[in-house]
Specification:
By secondary structure, the protein is an alpha+beta fold. The chain has a domain of 184 residues: Rod shape-determining protein MreC, domain 2 (Thrombin, subunit H, Beta Barrel), CATH 2.40.10.350. Helices cover 32% and strands 28% of the residues. It is built from 3 helices and 12 strands; from the N terminus they run H-H-E-H-E-E-E-E-E-E-E-E-E-E-E. The strands form 2 sheets. Strands 1-2-5-4-3-12 form a 6-stranded antiparallel β-barrel. A 6-stranded antiparallel beta barrel has the order 6-7-8-11-10-9. Strand 10 and strand 11 form a beta hairpin.
Length: 278
């Protein structure tokens, strides 16, 4: 049966510990003999808290901070890459070393470089099928033109930092671009001498177009590495823009010779394009 009240021994133990506690408290107040113990305990408490924080919280904070820094760096790199590509587009158009400068109708302010600004709009790549571009006859891509203007862009010329890419043929949600290498594309071109002209058809192969002529009509020799330019005929592409160079010549028969021309621009290189405004 449980006791209802404490025994005399329990009472004595309780009184003893109360007196002992009071004595310790009194000695602590009057002499600070336990100060080093208290300081040691505080030090242990602070150290334990710091170590626990370093082990648990700081690694998490570091991971979060690293993740944010990485995403910020990716975003900054993206912005820098865009700015660089835009700079390349500008340089491609305004450089006196570029063939765009050969046509004074296009470069109306060629004598005043500082104030010169070529009129074109910026477009961003939305989609292109690299497998289709590298294997098949149909070469198309879709771009999104960022400027809010009333321009009608169908049949406008599209270029990147390397040169001409193609022309816009349709508009829905995005603009469809017919690339130079598409078999349905035809580009009027000429040699620099402005004596030889032909229509270069898309080869259906990436980076190549084909110009066919009759050697009985044009008897002068055409050599590899000769450069072809836009002729300005057809009303789409401006005159005297460098297109590419002769990579090979194939004699089909006595009335047909095929010139394979490697074009300068690859639409897979870069995500930013220029669209000429007329």
């Amino acid at each position: 049966m449980a006791r209802a009240a404490p025994t005399p021994g329990q009472k004595l133990s309780f009184i003893f510990f109360v007196i002992l506690s009071s004595l310790i408290l009194y000695i602590d107040i009057t002499s600070n003999n336990f100060k080093s113990i208290k300081n040691g305990f505080k030090s242990f408490k602070i150290s334990s808290s710091y170590i626990a924080k370093e082990i648990s919280i700081e690694p998490l904070k570091s991971i979060i901070s690293l993740s944010k820094s990485k995403s910020q760096l990716i975003e900054e790199n993206k912005d820098l890459r865009e700015a660089l590509e835009l700079s390349y587009l500008n340089n491609y158009l305004i450089s006196k070393e570029n063939i765009f400068f050969k046509d004074k109708e296009i470069i109306k302010k060629a004598h005043n470089e500082n104030n010169y600004k070529f009129e074109y709009d910026i477009a961003y790549l939305k989609s292109i099928d690299p497998n289709m571009y590298n294997c098949c006859d149909k070469h198309r891509m879709f771009i999104d033109i960022k400027q809010n203007s009333d321009n009608l862009y169908v049949e406008s010329v599209v270029f990147n930092t390397e040169g001409l890419v193609g022309q816009i043929i349709g508009e829905s949600k995005f603009y469809e671009v017919l690339l130079l290498t598409d078999i349905s594309h035809s580009l009027p071109i000429k040699l620099n001498s402005s004596e030889f002209f032909c229509n270069a058809k898309g080869s259906g192969r990436s980076e190549y177009i084909i110009c066919t002529y009759n050697p009985l009509v044009w008897t002068k020799e055409i050599k590899e590495n000769q450069i072809f330019y836009t002729s300005g005929l057809g009303g789409i592409y401006p005159k005297d823009i460098e297109v590419g160079y002769v990579s090979s010549i194939e004699v089909v028969d006595s009335t047909q010779t095929n010139i394979e021309i490697k074009i300068l621009a690859n639409p897979l290189n870069g995500n930013i394009f220029g669209v000429l405004r007329y």
